[in-house]
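Pasting two entries for a bug report.
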Amino acid sequence: MPPVARQIPLFAAEPPQEPLPYGRWAEALAKRFGAASDVEIGDIAWFPDRTFAGRTYVPATAPAEGGGEVFGYVSYTREHEGAQATDFEAVADYTEETADQNPDWTLDLSDHEIGHWRGPQGRRGVITLVWGVALVPNGAVATAELGPTTTDQCELIDNRFTLVSLDDYTGDYIEVRLYGAGGAELARESLYEEE
């Protein structure tokens, strides 16, 4: 195989390892997520976990009291598989833009920068955590695309997915694509609004 011309990280995060949070674990995460929010929130929708660089991220969204939505994540580390989670961090942001107000959306996406990456010749990009909900039926897998390259993928769990990808690199930005079980593309969305 010849050398790769475009050296970028591919599938850098571990695939989801646990079911969506429930019970006491969901309550513990919810307490941290709620504390990070500036507004009161309703029931939390959790997304598949992804582990990158030793830190596990569990994204979440929740309706905000008075309208809008709170989105973010709770992250933690473990000394080893099966160890207690420690070093918790929670991030929560607010948006007035929701899927309910935008019936033309095919994917409801949220994102947050979780790191930086330096490539050859001083090129720089950001590592971005992306989570979302498929708003069209029959989705099976979501992918992150950076220009011509698929950088990550995640099987849907309850129509939800989480991706970790290099972003904003050499003029390319993440586009999320949704595929059905047979491999047909069902939807695609950029993280960035088209002007």
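Entry 2 (this is the one that rendered wrong in the viewer):
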Amino acid sequence: MKKKQSKKKTQNKKKKNYSETTAFANIDKTSNTLTIPKRNSSGIPKYVADRMARRIFFTAGIPTILGMSVFVVSYIVVTRNIAEIPPSSTIAISALFFLLGLAGLSFGILSASWDKEPGSFFGIENIPMNIQRAKDAFKPATQNFEDKS
């Protein structure tokens, strides 16, 4: 059985022809959307963020990898009967490395220099200044811009 195909009634519809002037007349009109001007970013500059990432990799990444490898080394030592290691020692040593990694994370962030040129190797002189910056960032905006007379 064949289906009947209906004809579309396109003959009754008329195409609207616009000239170029009327077609593009409304293109220059601005819409009522609100455009927010870009404000200056008060975030961390890219060169400082890169410096922080390098410091974090060494001061937090390496101890964290060591903390995970303690489990693997302990497993290998115990399964091959090289030594008898109590599970509490494995957990304590692993926890020590993870805490060292956590301290390294804080140190990596706080010891990075905000100057264009990199600071010293350890960056200990930058820690008090960066702690003050962190404290100022959490103050309300009105307190950050008070006149110091």
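Dev reply: Rendering is fixed now. As a check, the viewer should reflect this: The chain has five helices and no strands.
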